[in-house]
Predict the structure.
Amino acid sequence: MKMKKLLTAAQIAAGTGLYLLDRTQRITPRMRRKIGDQLTDFRDRAKDAYADAADRMSHASKALRKNNTHSNTATMLKFAVGLGVGAGVGLLMAPRKGEDTRHKVAEKARNFRSNVRQHWSSLDIAGTRDSAISHDISNVA
């Protein structure tokens, strides 16, 4: 009796498996077409979205470049102002007394100024220029 039930269950399982295989073979081509169509639609929408985004970025880039009226002088001026503001805030937030900080900053400024003067005085600008001009004249003659 147990064996008969086991054989009946095996027959039902085999029949169900064959039925599902048959249905799958009939349904699979339709599902593949449907999924393929959906993927094609998705790919087309993605391409359109990318093209639209690229166009918007191109227009924005052109608009930014067209209105770019800043010069190097203006940029340097902004940098200098920012540097000054930063130095002022740094002085206000310094851990030392204001008088000590001012003396320290003044000393550093004097050292920097003397270094710049030393550097520029060591260059023989006039002599270099005159020798370059005489060299150019001798090449022409």
Residues 1-69 form one domain. The chain is about 90% helix and 0% strand. Residues 2-66 form the longest helix (65 residues).
